[in-house]
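Deliverable D4.2, example record:
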Amino acid sequence: MAASGPIDWDQNGRIDAVRRRLDLNADGALNGLAGTPNEWSILVFNGGSHGKQIEIARLFTLARSQYRKMPVPELTEQQRSKIRQALPQP
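Output generated by the structure prediction step:
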């Protein structure tokens, strides 16, 4: 989905005509959210250690060396609940 496209927040298959304002990222502001990079497009399916035999200790070391923090944290259960409460109930 394009970062600038509409979002079907209540997953009913249509974009609601009523505009909603909600602090989705809990920063205290009611403004637009910035889009995040398309990380699906940079996944490597033909490389890495899949199918290779490697001792567990070395595997953990390798995993730690390749770990990087996501630019935006995922929603918490509390944030998800807050979003659902702001949407019209069917």
